[in-house]
Amino acid sequence: MACVGCSKCYRGIVFKCLHCAQAQVCQYHQLRIVQRYLTRRPELPASIELLSLANLLTNTDKESFVGSFEAWCERWNTFLKERTQDKRTDKSYYVHKRLRSAYLSLKRNMPYSYFACTVCSTRVRSTSIYGRGMIILM
User: Fold this and answer.
1) For the whole prediction, is pTM greater than 0.85?
2) Rounded-to-integer distance, Cα 49 and Cα 72, Å
3) Distant-in-sequence, close-in-space partners of 38: CB < 8 Å, separation ≥ 6
4) Which of 14, 111, 120, 122 pairs with 45 at a CA distance of 20 to 30 A?
């Protein structure tokens, strides 16, 4: 099993080169990614809720976190899809880009955040900050 930090490059190495190994995204680094997009003191209610939900990532089990995340997604679905149009170029873009990035990061990494919980071994930690973005082979 490999615990992958916050770098997409490391995830690519694990998923492509070590295809026989299982990979887990470090929950601490996932939290830091969300904090980077939303800041530590967000102002929008959707951002405040997503940050508080992300803070639960390292302290809850998979089922309760996924359920809470899906409820948040249903509640803020239309807010996340808001678009505006640039008058000069006539191109549209998402209004809440950073909130969408934090949401998509959690959604994209969800299958890899709780892998250690599905392994029968109790000595594998659910989160690891030992590597600080490096691959740790267990």
Assistant:
1) no
2) 8
3) 47, 50, 51, 98, 99, 102
4) 111
Block means of pLDDT (10 residues each) for the chain, length 138 residues?
54 58 79 93 95 91 92 96 92 94 93 63 49 47
Tokens of 135: 């691959």
DSSP string, 111-126: HHHSHHHHSS-SSS-S
Q: 51: how many CB neighbours lie within 10 A of its CB? A: 20
Burial 107-136 (b: 16+ CB within 10 A, else e): eebbebbbbbeeeeeeebebbbeebeeebe
Residues near 114 by beta carbon (within 8 Å), at least 6 away in sequence? 24, 61, 62, 65, 126
What the block records as the tokens of 80 is 């996340």
Residue identified by tokens 């995830």 is 11
How many residues are there in the chain? 138
